[in-house]
Specification:
With 565 residues, this protein is α/β, with parallel strands linked by helices. Helices cover 38% and strands 20% of the residues. It has a six-stranded mixed β-sheet with strand order 2-1-3-4-5-6, sandwiched between helices. Strands 7, 8, 9, 10, 11 and 12 form a six-stranded antiparallel β-sheet that branches. The chain has a six-stranded mixed β-sheet with strand order 13-14-15-17-19-21, with helices on both faces. It is globular, with a radius of gyration of 24 Å. The two termini are 23 Å apart. It binds coenzyme A (COA). The site of coenzyme A has 24 residues, from helix 11 and strand 18.
Length: 565
Amino acid sequence: MRILLLSHAFNSLTQRLFVELRAAGHAVSVEFDINDDVSREAVALFAPDLIVAPFLKRAIPADIWQRHTCLIVHPGIRGDRGPSALDWAVLDDAATWGVTVLQAEAEMDAGPVWSWREFPMRDATKASLYRNEVTAAAVAAVADAVERCAAGGFAPTPLDPQDPAIHGRLRPLMRQADRAIDWARDDTATVLRKIRCGDGFPGVRDTLAGRELFLYDAHAEAVLSGAPGELLARCGGAVCRATVDGAVWIGHLRDKHAGSDFKLPATHILGPAADALPEIVADGESGYRDLWYVEAGDVGYLHFPFYNGAMGTAQCERLLAAYRAARARDTRVIVLMGGPDFWSNGMHLNLIEAADSPADESWRNINAIDDLAREIIETDSQLTVAALHGNAGAGGVFLARAADQVWARDGVILNPHYKDMGNLYGSEYWTYLLPRYAGSDNAERIVRARLPMGVDEARALGLVDAVLDAAPTAFSAAVERRAADLARAPGFDAQLGDKQRQRRADEAQRPLTAYRDDELQRMRLNFYGFDPSYHVARYNFVGKVPKSRTPLTIAQHRRVSSPTD
Ligand code: COA
């Protein structure tokens, strides 16, 4: 079928549907919902059999849904309506939630139902639930709906509010007043729900150190406590604030009134008010942990759930130190676990944007990430694994490929390209790693396509070695079993020997330094050259400036030449 994805942005769910529907053999094109005439033009150009709207902020024009079957993916259970579906589910502590695929009609989210899925809720941010449970449910429900549409003759079920199986209802837009934290009354669980239901967007407006700020990235503290609302301590980039029955860590803040109206580590935004707090070091029980090491048998695991997968200079340096310590241990395998939502998205564009000299900070950040990549590539004492529980993008994909093996959870999406960030050339030794694992022809094709990639395609192209078909909650256990097997495999010594030989041969053919020097020469131009494209693209990305047109890489209907050009 010809399927047009009409979406506010090419967000994670839209990317996943794009990948899955293409893999299922459909011709898929994407148009951003910029204005009604642009949508009409896209429909006229692509002549779709079906329009799927995974992420819309406005209604589809009536003349489009009256002439074409338009399926809306609503992140809510049947009967639920309104723009804050998942926000309410998190705030209300719903035990189960769901996704409904319904036909577009005059009233938003009220059309007949084509398919639906439900799932148990998890204590997590709205964004994490969206990227995991909601996305998995949406993929399954859209697959059902597409099949029904292709088969023909299917009559979607009109919503019957009297049906006892329908539990959803119309909910209004969630306002800041609904999210507001009452520090004198709210317990830790309530504070966490209030922050998580607006994380990643819009955050909870609050007053902190006398300033109006938006709160994100909250975690319960197990030991510290104090007068409700009081700031108690700092740890890494986070600050700890007392609730009535304990305390929470707040990792990230946004200051709407500052020049930089985007998320940054809390201590960065609070400045002297955070510096004045007592500093604590995180351990397994207390503190804000974004980097830790555990060992089980012959395997060492490094966890680094950096917020949004963004890796700033200091984070790369800390990770490098932790990695070196892991290398020095008497283990046989090191597994780089990343975090549950993202493995890595490369350099920390927000910190770069906020720096006095974004060019200098970009340079420091890319060198810090390259140092880490090099250490991984040159590890000759252990076999290394990158275990992708969550997605990876740009430099994060190549950092993962620096490991000997890449294992990815089924459903993970990779974006192995940099050019969308203002023609950024990229580093992380990608010019060595990509051809080595994917072959030169594929490497060139991947770079040119600038498309998201599912795990099956990534495996066929050598970017992933194994796909683990595990639910998000079962992934870590599946990785542990596999890593223990790898460490005990009879062929372990031979594998390690092959790896050392291969590295020596590669180094003799072209030293790693030469790849890095060439990449960084190009990056230097991106950062310091006359063409400001990277700085403009980063400014737009960080400030969430909406795109004014759909990139031709995904708007197939607007291309005049072949999709691989
Ligand atoms: N630095 C800082 N923040 C980043 C980031 C980065 N490198 N990559 C992603 N984020 C943030 C986004 O701003 C967003 O923030 P939010 O919580 O305020 O919404 C969040 O992470 C999720 O990213 P989003 O873009 O919404 O996810 P996606 O699944 O739609 O797209 C990517 C994934 C990787 C395609 C996209 O995030 C991206 O292009 N990131 C930049 C990658 C890059 O160019 N890195 C630098 C070169 S190494």
